[in-house]
Amino acid sequence: MLIPVRCPHCKGKFWVEFSIKYELYKYVEAMSELTRIHIKDAIVRGVWTDEEVASEVQRTIASLLKRGVPRKQVVEEVAQLYGIPQVHVDELIENLLSKVPELNGVR
User: Fold this and answer.
1) What's the burial of 72, exposed, middle or buried (CB within 10 Å: 0-12/13-18/19+)?
2) Are 59 and 74 in contact (CB under 8 A)?
3) Which one, of 91, 99, 80, 81, lies nearest residue 4 by Cα?
4) CA 90 from centroid of its chain's CA atoms
5) pLDDT at 75
6) Spatial distance between the Cα atoms of 97 and 43, rounded to a whole number of angstroms
7) What's the rounded Cα separation, in Å, for the pair 26 and 104?
8) pLDDT value at residue 27
9) Origin, by domain of life (predicted)?
10) Stated pTM of the model
11) Residue 69 and residue 96: Cα distance in Å, rounded?
12) What stretches in the chain show pLDDT beneath 70?
């Protein structure tokens, strides 16, 4: 999973790729009834600058929008492809649309 973080020292924006190891304990059959998740470890797999991640992801977004893929579908596909939460994909789309006005009509 990739998430954006802001460095408290330099105030720069970075993207952190991480994974979480966990154990799932089900005390009853239905997950919604009683379940406990025990986080065993969180592992940072990599750190990238905002420019590195945003430029690659926005190229993919632009390509999908130009092909006429609906914005909602773009958000879902890009989130799955890159492992980025949908709310952050939506932010990347907004940023791209502000930089490339000709994509505004292609939603």
Assistant:
1) exposed
2) no
3) 91
4) 9
5) 97
6) 33
7) 47
8) 82
9) Archaea
10) 0.76
11) 16
12) 31-32, 105-107
**13-26/35-49 β-pairing:** antiparallel
Q: Cα separation of 18 and 15, whole Å? A: 10
Distances (CA, A) of 60 to 36, 38, 46, 63, 93: 37, 35, 21, 5, 10
End-to-end CA separation in angstroms for the chain? 26
pLDDT for the residue numbered 107: 46
Contacts of residue 107, defined as CB under 8 A and 6 or more positions apart, other chains included, come to: 65, 70, 71
